[in-house]
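Entry for protoporphyrin IX containing FE complex. Fields follow.
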Amino acid sequence: MPVSYSNDIRPLFRDSPDIDAMQGYGLDLSSYEDVKTRASEIYACLKDGSMPCDEPWPQERRALFRRWRMACLLREFNVS
Ligand code: HEM
């Protein structure tokens, strides 16, 4: 099954504090377009453990986000 934003990625973000806090910083984690556009920057934060600031994601969550991000990139460049 391909990784999808609505089924796999959106549920990783908590309504509070992830989504509401980050909306205050101009990043809407509940928006597919926002998360896709800023996926590399988001992944960097997840990977270095700086975000979420209260509790870094475990390795398997980071790996799932990375897989989704790679799939987005491949689609963008029309590679299958
Ligand atoms: C583009 C990537 C991101 C940037 C640049 C960013 C930046 C920030 C900044 C500047 C803050 C203010 C507090 C601080 O300096 O630590 C913050 C808070 C926070 N961010 Fe992010 N963030 C990003 C992604 C994320 C993601 C992906 C999550 C969740 C998975 C997240 C969850 C949070 C939470 C929970 C807080 C703390 C809110 C509070 O308790 O006041 N952020 N972020």
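NOTE: DSSP finds five helices and no strands in the chain.
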